[in-house]
Amino acid sequence: MPQLLRRILLVLVVFLLISAGPSAGPAEPAPAAAQAQAQAQATTEALQPKSNTEIRRWYNDQVGVIPALNQTWRAQGLSAEARARRAYEIRHTARNRARRFMADTQEVAALRKLDQAKYGNPDGPTFEYLVEQNRKRGLAGDAVYDTIIGSANRTDPGYNAKFNVTPAGKPP
Question: Does position 60 have pLDDT exceeding 90, yes or no?
Fold first, then answer.
């Protein structure tokens, strides 16, 4: 039960942070929104992972909410591109935050080096990179963005196995 409660809290935190983002309305958040955002930040800090296993589980939890959020965004009438950008931002932010949580700076440097070699960017692929890759694969229109959304919550099975982590909704 604590694991379920933890996942629900993380979904709430992500939802609150996204809904308070720049596309949510006026530049100055309403007092209630500011308070909710502060509570979400406090919850996130309290749940900050320490070990690499906890960090990997946290990362999977962060990106694991993307399909549900995508359904909400679709119901709100957001375009495929807007939904893809949001999904990308969740994953990209989770990637960078997970690396900040890591204690071993050499491990982080190795991951950044791999990303630099693979994507030409030490922080992983840019949104533009993903769009271009999908277009090179022959995709066009919304299919380019739907593919980004579809892959945004898929995590590396090798790293998950290394830390004995099973993403939510996936068989062990």
Answer: yes
